[in-house]
Amino acid sequence: MFKKIIHWCSDQIKTAKPFCLDHIGVCMSIILLGWLLYFVSEKIGIFDPIKAAFEDFYMTDIYYEITHSEEPPHDADIVIVDMTNLSTRDEIAQVITDIKSCKPKVLCVDLIFEHPSFDTIDDVSLITSLETDECKQVLSCKLRDYDKESSSFRNCLYSFFYGLDNKNILWGYSNYSQIRMGGYTRHTTLSQKTNDSIVFSLPYTAACLYQEKKLQRQEIEERQILYGDIDFNVINSCDILKESDKIKDKLVVLGSLHEEADMHFTPLGKMAGVKVIAYSIRTYLKGGEVKELGTIGNLLIGILVWWFAACIGYLIEKRHPIVYGILAKIFNFTLVAILIWISFEIYARYSYHINLLIPLTGLAMAEDIREMYIGIVRWLHEKMKWKILNKSLYIKR
Fold first, then answer.
1. Structural domain boundaries of the chain?
2. Which region, left, alpha or beta, applies to residue 141 given φ > 0 means left and ψ of -120 to 50 means alpha?
3. Please, are residues 392 and 22 in contact by the beta-carbon 8 Å criterion?
């Protein structure tokens, strides 16, 4: 039985003629047409929506969609306190005081108080609540005025009480980068330059405080946020003392879960900024460094896949000339499913992201381009009488 299988495979390989230049010709045609489409999309504005959709597409989106469940487990380290219903700084001060009384390990405040209020008593209450040293704290700031030439921001927006002499307070920026306006929030950066100084991000600073690690720049400054099938315990600002057991020794993120102005589009759907911060923190806590295969690597995978599809397409046409069109499409669809499954397994097990956009886009066009290649080869052979084409698989002898 085993010998029969080996003999059958050997026969198929011989029939497919894998080292024939025609298969390489099909691959080169896919690359040429793909480059042409990319060039046209760069130059012609009407293709901007298509270009943006391709740039903002990740295979991990499908992974998150498949693995998402209605009731995902809650993270064991991070708790979100929702302060949407609070309207005054005095109320916020009281919530901060209540959270600290529950003995969290770190308090991360996703709020910026840009100007002093008209009621100085409220400001005093707020500053007093932050000055207490029951836990380590990191407050939010915003980087502004990015300069492309120096790859740095010109200034940073802090709360009005920046410079408060308290060793338990650190500052971290809460900016997130996007490919385009309205695009998905996918990446969290570790640090950024502002003029001649370095500012660390809010999620990274909070994670380091929680793990008692030193803040330092790393070789990889940007990481893909690990959203995954996980959620967080959410406590309403009115119920803090009732649920103190959920806060003790945890990393608490204070922010608004239902403020429309602070919503982000993510692979899991529309999400509050405070929740994006929670996922970003979790990314650092879990050592969430997603390694990504570069464009060259994706292109090499694509060439291998397209070459294989060209070989099988020729083999199917040779063996089953009547129904080869249907069989070839079924094969390519199956190959797509196998590639996606392999990439999901690699991502889930090893946090290594292979963006199959290039290979799968080419594979979707592979059979049509092979037929176009056949037509061009036969036309050149008939009209131009090129002798080199006599060796082609697609020239009838």
1. 18-55+292-391, 70-289
2. beta
3. yes
End-to-end Cα spacing for the chain:
36
Q: Which of 177, 168, 166 is nearest to 201 (CA)?
A: 177
Q: Which strand (E) or helix (H) includes residue 197?
A: strand 197-200
Provide the 10 A C-beta neighbour count for residue 45.
Answer: 9
DSSP string, 249-267: TSEEEEE-SS-GGGEEEET
Query: Residue 378 class from Cβ within 10 Å (0-12 exposed, 13-18 middle, 19+ buried)?
Result: middle
* Residue owning tokens 């079924």: 330
249 Rama class: left (phi>0) / alpha (psi -120 to 50) / beta: left
What would the pLDDT profile of 22-65 be if each residue is shown by its tens digit? 888 999 999 898 888 777 766 665 555 555 656 666 767 777 77
Q: How big is the chain, counted in residues?
A: 397
Paired tokens of 345? 């397994």
Q: 3-state SS of the chain: helix, strand, coil percent to 5?
A: 50, 20, 30
